[in-house]
Design goal:
By secondary structure, the chain is of the alpha/beta class. It contains four helices and 14 strands.
Length: 283
C-alpha cells in the first residue's frame, strides 16, 4: 500500500511539472515577435551624415534622420491599386504631391485615412523645416490627361538633409525651364517609371534624367506584381522589369530600407529598386 501511495505522489509531481512547461510554452507562443500585434522595430542608429530611405509602396516613402521622420505620398486603401496602406506607419509630417487617392491617402475623396488630423499634412508649394530637414515645394503641373478634377495641381518636393538633396517628382508633367532651375544639384530623384510609361513618356523621362543628372534614381509609381493579382489592373500601369532588365547600373535591394550619405553617393548614376514594405499584406 505504501508503494502505491509513493507512485501516485510521483505521478502527481510529474503531471504538475508537465502543466507548468506547457503553460510556459503557451505564453512564449502568444508573445512571439511574429504575432500580428508585433510593433515596428526601432529605427537603427544613424550617423549625423546618414539618411535612411524607406520605401512603403507605389510612390510612398519615409525619410529618417536625426530622430525625425517624414512620410511622402501615402496612398488610399485599395483604390486603383489593390493593397492597403499600413496603419502602423507614423511620421512627424506628411508631404503630398497632389490630391490623387494614390498620393494623398484619399483626402480629396473624403476617405479619411487613419492619420487624418493627427499628422501635419502639406501639399501646397512653400518652405518648411523639421529638425535638420529643410523642405521646399515647387509648383508644377500634373501630367496630361489626368488630374483635371483638381486643376492638375502637382507640387515637386525637395528635401535637404545631411548634405543631400532629394526630390520627389510626384506625377508632374515633362521638364520645363522653371523645374530645371529649381531642381539643380539633386542627388537623389524619386521619379515615376514603368514599362508602359504611364506618367512620363520615354523621351520625357530621358529628358528629366539628363537635365537633373541625379546620382541615384529611385523608380516609383509602377505595378508591384506581388501585390497585384488582378489581370490587367491597375489600368494603364506597367511593372518595372522590362525597363531595368538590360541596364548594368541597377541595384536590386533585398529589403525596403537603404542608408546613404553624401560621401557614399556613386560616381555615376545608379538605379535603386526597393522591395515593398513587409507591413503590407500580400493578397
Amino acid at each position: 500500500m505504501k508503494t502505491v501511495i509513493i507512485k501516485v505522489r510521483r505521478f502527481s509531481i510529474a503531471f504538475s511539472y508537465c502543466l507548468m512547461i506547457l503553460g510556459a510554452l503557451f505564453l512564449c507562443t502568444c508573445t512571439s515577435p511574429t504575432s500580428d500585434t508585433a510593433k515596428e522595430p526601432p529605427l537603427q542608429e544613424l550617423k549625423e551624415d546618414e539618411l535612411q530611405i524607406e520605401y512603403i509602396a507605389h510612390a510612398s516613402f519615409r525619410l529618417h534622420h536625426g530622430g525625425n521622420t517624414l512620410l511622402l505620398d501615402p496612398f488610399a486603401d485599395s483604390v486603383w491599386i489593390a493593397y492597403d496602406f499600413p496603419e502602423g506607419i507614423t511620421a512627424d509630417a506628411i508631404f503630398s504631391t497632389h490630391p490623387h487617392y494614390d498620393h494623398d491617402g484619399g483626402l480629396f475623396r473624403n476617405l479619411h485615412p487613419y492619420w487624418e488630423g493627427k499628422i501635419p499634412f502639406y501639399q501646397d508649394p512653400g518652405q518648411h523645416s523639421i529638425g535638420h530637414f529643410k523642405m521646399e515645394g515647387i509648383k508644377g503641373r500634373h501630367c496630361d490627361p489626368y488630374g483635371k478634377e483638381f486643376g492638375q495641381k502637382n507640387t515637386i518636393w525637395i528635401f535637404e538633409v545631411a548634405g543631400l538633396r532629394i526630390a520627389h517628382w510626384g506625377d508632374n508633367a515633362p521638364m520645363n525651364d522653371t523645374i530645371a532651375n529649381a531642381l539643380s544639384d539633386i542627388d537623389i530623384l524619386m521619379v515615376p517609371i514603368d514599362d508602359v510609361f504611364h506618367i512620363l513618356k520615354e523621351e520625357d523621362l530621358k529628358e528629366v534624367l539628363s537635365t537633373i543628372k541625379p546620382r541615384i534614381i529611385i523608380p516609383m509609381h509602377y505595378k508591384i506584381a506581388a501585390l497585384e493579382k488582378r489581370p490587367g489592373l491597375p489600368k494603364n500601369l506597367g511593372t518595372i522589369e522590362n525597363y531595368i532588365k538590360d541596364r548594368n547600373n541597377v541595384i536590386n535591394l533585398k529589403g525596403n530600407k537603404y542608408v546613404i550619405s553624401k560621401n557614399s553617393l556613386p560616381e555615376t548614376p545608379q538605379y535603386l529598386v526597393f522591395q515593398h514594405s513587409p507591413e503590407i499584406k500580400e493578397p
